[in-house]
Amino acid sequence: MKHISFLFTLTLILILGCTPKTATTIEAPQAPTEEVVHTSDEPKSMPAEETRTELGGAVAKKMEKAAQTPTDPMMQSVPLDPRVITGKLDNGLTYYIQKNEKPEERAEIRLAVRAGSINEDDDQKGLAHFVEHMAFNGTMHFEKSELIDYLQSVGTRFGADLNAYTSFDETVYMLQVRTDSQAIFDKGMLILEDWANAVTFEDEEIDKERGVVLSELRSGLSAQERMRNQYLPTLLHGSKYADRLPIGTKEILSGAPYDALKRFYRDWYRPDLMSVVVVGDVDVEEVEKDIKERFGQIANPDDEREREKYGFPDHEQTLVSITKDKEANFTTAQVMYKHPHKPVKDLKDYRTSLVRNTYNRMLNNRLNELRQAADPPFLYGYSGYGRFVGNLDTYTAYVTSGEGEVMKGLASVLTENKRVLEHGFTASELDRTRIEMISEAETTAKEEDKTQSGTLAMQYVYNFLNENPVPSPTQRFQLAQALLPTISLEEVNALAKSWITDGENRVIIVTGPDKEDVPLPAEEDILDLLKEVDMKSVEPYEDEVANVPLLGEDPDAGKVVDTKTLDDLAVTEWVLSNGVQVILKPSDFQNDEIRFNAFSPGGHSIYPDEDYRSASLASAILNQSGIADFDQIQLQKMMAGKQLNVSPYISELEEGMSGFSTIKDLETMFQLIYMYFTDPRKDPEAYQSIISRQKQILQNYLVDPRNYYREKVSEIKYGDHKRRGVPTAEELDEASLDKIMEVYNDRFADASDFSFVFVGNFTLDSIRPLVEKYIGSLPNIEREEDWKDVGAHVAEGKHIERFSYGAAPKTQVEMSWSGEMDWDVEADRRKHNMLMEVLRNKLRESMREDKGGVYGVGVRGNVSKIPKEGQSVSLSFNADPDRVDELIQTALDDIQKIKNGGVSEEDLQKVREILKQSRIKNLKENRYWANALKSLYSYDLDPNMILLENYLPVIEQISPEDIVDMAKRTFNPENYIEVVMMPAADANGK
Question: What dihedral do alpha carbons 774, 775, 779, 783 form, nearest 10°?
């Protein structure tokens, strides 16, 4: 390591002086080295309120404290966020508690268990995940489905606010709970306590849940899953991980004795393997007391099983697996070099992770450039170092290619690796990457007090599970400022030599379609390619950078000519001299974020069918073409260190732009808006690149049953309408770059009918000069236009179609209804929305909880104003082919019960509470306001309905009878489409 200056050392001393509060003598909970979670090697950034540097008298105190630490500051532990209280109970349970008010009156609570599928015995494959399911189906204090019923009654949405996952090495339970009521918060903590120690495992509930976990297993059945099962024994050579996929096996899930689940729970759900995390709007001291009382009484088992460490045996030779499947629609190849994982414990480790991060970023930037070539060598390419599974890291060269192109793609990625080996990176690449990483850390540091509690909670979960470092966002920024400048080009370049080995612990995996006329490469072909790339000489990379201003001349500014205010919404409307409408809502929801939407009626609906393909591709092409004289690659390099995005789009009924920026990058965002209107770039190479990649994607698109099913549903609903469904390769040839540019320029030629919405941390005085300069100067040709109805409407009448396709033993179902509805009746739109929530709950209870027939049912409802007023509903699920008729009838029966009056006040109150709590949270989010204001001005909605005090009375007045009436109007059996895809018959006719 290079010499560390006194200034650098002092900076580290200041950072290290910020230590977390601890309730016991532990500094920070550390997991055993074998405990893992799937994460990348890149350290996670966390948002922060403002950038701070400790000065004054604090320096002397920290210097005095540092005198008691080892001489080398790099040997110091990575600091834990000083805002968190950590502790370990006598029984070994670890806890983390942090006060955080984003969102207000909410807490995110977690139970993390260091036990997953790797801990299963041979007769328990899949039961770690099954146990997780059972935690929602009966505990000491919540029988059967009472847990979900209770949480829904207080506004918790199943899935979004209440969830869990099981992986190889851990199981994590996640719950957002309200803190505006002590009783509700206490119930949330009781649920966590029950999960940890009091799941009941009733026989009847286990048997019902078997169908749910089998449905979840069934939903994952695909070509990718079949090929994975073939190559995993090679990839995870000699390791138990290869035989312990969390989803398990059908045989064990369907037939495991009850005690096998209970045995897993007894063995592994114990305090010394658990952590409780509470982050939110809470009284930290009271929560700590509560945790000690609740969880301190849980005892570890007397016959405690050892949690073994499962490693990955070395192998001297390269291992190769080439797998194919008739339903694979892409070819992939990856060369992986295995390395032992080393946790990030001290600052030296942390710095090493930053060095790796710079390497990964720079190499993948180069691969991204290749992908944008006119004849791209691959659809997607990646190379980098990161955590894989368990105590295994890998350095990977990966490529996804079209048919017959995998050798070309892999050769390209390997050649770029060789280029780094032979010549390294350039100083300008490293400088740019440092700037990017410091800028990102600064941005998150400015949002320190506006970080979502859920984000913080998961950071502490991963700290417990696999020792991920969790400094505060401010500390991360300080570390980035201190450490990144010390990283030399030489040490980054040296990484490739340490990662890329000749054959030891190297694995090659190739997957692709099973087609006789396009065979996959053989093992010797891949090995020969590796030797060929290794032997050839490559030229150094040339880093081409445009060192000129983004915008040459300032535009002639317009003026604000009219002002209106919506006082209740704290919204201001400006009309500019060029006719543009600007809607502004200053907010303090985030410290360093401004979001915008721009929109105008029209879209590609106004163009004839012969121009449709060009019109529909226009925004995709222009988003990859750069701007003015800068191609996309140059533009990306110019934006290094800037946290912003501007994306133009042309949809069927409107054109517009959307994006965001930080405060310091706000003017650059405005410049890009102006330039995307006035100086779009015609780039033949970008056009050819996108068309080439799209054609490769389409080659085998329909061999995947999921894609085939989607296209079949579209065909049944819309017939052969040109503007629905996925285009063929021949239809892509109908597009032309000249027509694309003509369409794009036409759509953005007149700004006078555009509306712009800005929401975020700005003042009207600060943003006005930018609005007048860059929005007020946009062209105005006073054109009057609107969207057109292209006639792509869902087919009327009753249509039931069944067909067979695909090898997996599963059935895909979509049931849909459509009909008339008056958009302008506000109450009807709310009733329709509430009906969807009621139906979602009913279907979960009947089809999942009672019958165990599905993992989930997708329920989508829509009320539309344009291009045609009306409403639609669709239900979708996958099922066991032998039960599909039963489950379709169950859904129809549930709908009929609702139509017959089967909606209770209790049903409706659950929905009201969920909608209420969702609106309370949304009203503190910039993204919500940006979208809500766009809808308000697009559809001439009542602005008062955004506010809680006006929204709640409307949904409170809706009665069960109103929902019944809406169901009768919505679910018309004579306007019904049912599409069922059964599996294709096998050789035995099954």
Answer: 170
Clarify whether residues 610 and 741 are in a common domain: yes
Looking at the structure, tell me whether residues 414 and 529 fall in a common domain: yes
Confidence tier at 31 by pLDDT (50, 70, 90):
very low
Domain that holds residue 645: 560-775
Q: Which of 519, 471, 489 is nearest to 346 (CA)?
A: 471
Q: How far apart are CA 149 and CA 764, in angstroms?
A: 46
Distances (CA, A) of 178 to 150, 157, 573, 921: 13, 12, 35, 11
Q: What is the mean pLDDT of residues 348-363?
A: 98
Q: What's the pLDDT at 70? A: 54
Q: Are residue 69 and residue 158 in the same domain, yes or no?
A: no
For residues 492 and 358, is the Cβ–Cβ distance under 8 A? yes
Residue 961 to residue 967: CA distance in whole angstroms: 10
Tell me, yes or no, whether 640 and 760 share the same domain.
yes
If asked whether residues 222 and 268 sit together in one domain, one would say yes
d(CA 229, CA 234): 10
Read off the pLDDT band of 526 (50, 70, 90).
Answer: very high
β-pair type (755-760, 811-819) = unpaired
Tokens 């239900």 sit on residue: 875
**Same-domain check for residues 55 and 95:** no
Amino acid at 361: R
Residue 102: left if φ>0, alpha if ψ -120 to 50, beta else—which one? beta
Q: Is residue 44 part of a domain?
A: yes
In this structure, are 175 and 270 located in the same domain?
yes
Domain boundary among 264, 295, 326: 295
Number of domains composing the chain = 4
Q: Residue 554: inside a domain, yes or no?
A: no
Q: What is the CA radius of gyration of the chain?
A: 29
Q: Are residues 141 and 271 in the same domain?
A: yes
pLDDT score recorded for residue 896: 98
pLDDT at 507 over 60: yes
Q: The tokens 């109150």 sit on which residue?
A: 909
Mean pLDDT over 284-290 rounds to 99
| CB contact set of 481 (below 8 Å; sequence gap of 6+) | 11, 438, 441
Predicted pLDDT at 990 = 56
Residue 748 to residue 655: CA distance in whole angstroms = 8
Residue 76 and residue 19: Cα distance in Å, rounded? 12
- Sign for the CA dihedral angle at 858, 129, 211, 266 comes to negative
847: tokens are: 């089809």
CA-CA distance, 31 to 285, in Å (whole number)?
25
pLDDT score of 321: 98
Do 122 and 248 touch, CB atoms closer than 8 A?
no
Q: What is the CATH number of the domain that holds 463?
A: 3.30.830.10
Domain final position from 271, 295, 319 = 295
Two tokens at 684? 């033949």
Q: Are 814 and 803 in contact (CB under 8 A)?
A: no
Q: Tell me the two tokens of residue 459.
A: 């950071």
Q: 492 in a domain, yes or no?
A: yes
In a domain, 753, yes or no: yes
Please write the tens of the pLDDT for every residue from 808-819.
999 999 999 999
832: its two tokens: 């329709």
Q: Please report, for residues 613, 641, 647, the alpha-carbon distance to residue 673 in angstroms, rounded to integers and kept in the order given.
A: 25, 19, 9
Give pLDDT, residue 614.
98
Sheet holding 858-864, edge to edge: 799-804, 976-982, 811-819, 870-879, 858-864
Of the candidates 43, 74, 1, 9, the residue with the CA atom closest to the CA atom of residue 490: 1
The yes-or-no verdict on residue 67 having pLDDT over 80 is: no
Q: How confident is the model at residue 51 (pLDDT cuts 50, 70, 90)?
A: very low
- Which amino acid type is present at position 678? T
Residue whose pair of structure tokens reads 């979708």 in the numeric block: 876
DSSP letters for 899-968: HTT---HHHHHHHHHHHHHHHHHHTT-HHHHHHHHHHHHHHT--GGGGSHHHHHHHHHH--HHHHHHHHH
Q: Give the rounded distance of the alpha carbon of 246 from its chain centre.
A: 21
Q: 814 has which bridge partners? A: 876, 979
